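User: Predict the structure for this protein chain, please.
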Amino acid sequence: MQVQCPLCRTPVDLDDRAAGTLVRCRACGKSFVGPRELAVIGRRHTLTAFSVTGLLLLHYVTVGLFTVVHLNMMHDKLPKVRRTDPSALVAVGLCFVPGVNLLWLFFTLRRLCLRINEQRSIRGMEATAPQTFAIIVSTLLLCGFIATILPITGWVLLGATNGILIPVFIAMLQASVNELVAYREQWADTPVGQNRSHEQPRRAAGDRDRDLGPPGKRGPLARTGGR
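Assistant: Here is the predicted structure, written as structure tokens:
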């Protein structure tokens, strides 16, 4: 993945090992921390496509149960970048713990969107997984359950959220995933020898403190290219 030195704007190529580590630019001699997004380079997602229409039908038939499991299972199919990125077991399990699940939805839905958008971003795709919408849906669900002390208001709010807003959210999220999967399959079918640089960026060799610089002026620690 090509990034720019934040101080002198010299373009440099970094791989996943540079994420969150200190790297040194040979052009200006200053050090900077490699972008966190680099951590997903070289570790591909294993997401699979799923029919949006089928997902919506199953959502209504199972009263949202299939949706909870299906979405949270995606966590195991994405590269773990942060220590707090949950596994599918944790993500699904906490959704069924009374009291905890209402607060957990704020975290797990937003984090899932973030992780999907990171995969899209490193491929030059627009971040379409609805992170803000995830917060809105989680907030309305929490408010709906709290408002159930009022016989009509709470159930109307819950019904509208589950019957309208959540289906819209999962349709947007699944469409974003399907597009990401289609992109991966497109590059997987590209014949060897053609340009596949968007999917497989050049890797930079070197240790934790990488010595970087412009093409033609890099030291041994900054050589790029395959072996």
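The beta strands are 2-4, 11-13, 22-25, 31-33, 210-212.
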